[in-house]
Description:
The structure is a homodimer of 230-residue chains. With 230 residues, chain A is an alpha+beta fold.
Amino acid sequence: MPAFREFTKQELGFISKFKKGELAVDKGATVLVEGSHSAHLYTVLSGWAFRYKLLPDGRRQILNYLMPGDLIGLQGSVMGEMQHSVEALSTMLLCVFEREHLHELYRNHPGLGYDITWIASREERMLDENLLSVGRRSAIERAAYLIAFIGSRARAVGLNGKSSIRIPITQQHIADTLGLSLVHTNKTIRKLMERKLILWRDGGCEVVDNEGLKQLARWEGLGEDRRPLI
Amino acid sequence: MPAFREFTKQELGFISKFKKGELAVDKGATVLVEGSHSAHLYTVLSGWAFRYKLLPDGRRQILNYLMPGDLIGLQGSVMGEMQHSVEALSTMLLCVFEREHLHELYRNHPGLGYDITWIASREERMLDENLLSVGRRSAIERAAYLIAFIGSRARAVGLNGKSSIRIPITQQHIADTLGLSLVHTNKTIRKLMERKLILWRDGGCEVVDNEGLKQLARWEGLGEDRRPLI
DNA sequence: CGCGGTTTTGAGAATCCTCAAAACCAGTGG
DNA sequence: CCACTGGTTTTGAGGATTCTCAAAACCGCG
């Protein structure tokens, strides 16, 4: 997989020892809940998920999306309690690690420790961009940004099943990511379709004109090339 | 300082070797700019700053605030290019590190490497909460949350100069943090003052009723005790 | 065929925005 | 000591965006 960096033999050896097993998750299942103290850390092998937080009265904010190569539960592993929940958008396959062994990883494989920091920094960068979007972009700019963003990430991990990618989310997810109401989100998505930038079908979204989306959102794209994988 | 964890002698030794010098920064000065490739990494020793991003047409989103003990420029050190800028809110004193030596830190002091990941995770947690706020809270809830949040952080690093803390920001900063216009922010702040939750004076904000703010924002507070410091 | 989840539409209302101007305030120079 | 200046806060008013409520249409699935 060209998107990821190479490992040394020792690193690979440690990772497979670190790996505790695999976990298959159904669509719609909750992988982690806010407030829990999970003993595990996961890497997404396949499938999609999202991270979110809830307000006491039920308002939901989706924080980010997770796809192959992403870590789940690092915050909980490092800081103790999970402060957000994770739900699967499709059936997924996860690689399970023991949080216990994380210290060992840092001790014996500093390169991998560095990689984890790299991954955490990348997550921070994505959150920065999302915050800019929700705080300062108009509804249509936000929607354009979000779809271009998810599409770009999916493409980067090779999810383009020969043709274009179908993003498996509902408009409610988009609304909860952008901080908009469902109704207004629908009207906004509709405008993007009229402009022939995207397509909505089979209960999901497809990017038609990526450049157009980026231009509308005034987004530069995620300037990334190779990345580490745990 | 009770908020921070203890170090071993070796760690302290390395840190002082890692440290390249100190940097004094004026109020209003730009510490780092988006797009640059800084060779340095900083720790805040004293003073306040904020991280922000700009849209091409000038709209600004403040991402987070920085105070003593926080790292500046980790993203740039780990990933190459800075994706946000940092500006000082007061005169500050920074501890300067060479980004070059970061790998060495991971290699020789895994405990410190782990600490850096911890710090990055903490930043992510704060961003999650900010995103929830901007996306799903009403204007007055957002303002209450923000002020309680900054106040709590300031208190945690012992910034309460015997009496209450003055947060050295303008209403424009608050507006750009919350994703609101300046005018609406002013009207919202005013409501918080009428409710006797805060005070605005000397060009800054003071918390009067922290519990009241948290309750209004439906915020649990930042459940933290001891943290690492680099 | 009926059901639950999702998308779509319409309409009135609330929140929040922009524009514009005044008030305030600390610092500066005459 | 006072006028002037630039930055910040305050106020008013009309307008745009976005929200809520409500209901209908659509759609895959049992």
